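sorry for the late reply, my laptop died twice this morning and i had to redo everyting from scratch. anyway the thing you sent over, i finally got around to it. pasting the sequence first so we're on the same page, its 173 residues, then the predicted structure underneath. double check i copied it right bc i was rushing
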Amino acid sequence: MLEMLGVGPRDVLVDLGCGDGRVVVKAAKRGARSVCVEIDRVLCNVTEIWARVEGVEDRVEVICKSFFDVDLGSVNPTIVYAYLYPSVLEQLSPKLEDELSDGTIIVTLDFAIRGWSPVYARVLVDENKFDRVLWMYVTGLSNPKARRVGIAKNLGLFVSRLRSRSLRGVSNA
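ok and here's the structure:
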């Protein structure tokens, strides 16, 4: 997923409910500043230790609290990753709309965000040979509020931002 998105040094990746931190550590190894938001103190410690072992602790920030209590706008992410149940994504939807700036990429694994229009979806096969679905959204384009106010004026900006990422496996057509 990180390679497909072209994650690199210009990115700030936030993983909501990051678990053991595998996504943020891998993003940091690609040069991104990574922020793990996790409520479980044990998993926060695991992420901090793993980041230190991998030599990326200077690029990994661990926020050990509920993502509902974190001001995402203050982190200013370019990419938000969430592997969360649909009911949680639905609860999180207004927060994403209110706090993320237009053009932020949101990626969810396996579950779509109800009411949002993905700009891209792809079936991937994981290391255990299971089919997984990667959903990608762009704030200001995919979210319900954006569609209600008519965001077409920003469409060219969003398309150019996505193309500049050199998304692997995504046609420029």
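DSSP finds seven helices and seven strands in the chain.
thats about all i looked at so far, will dig more tmrw
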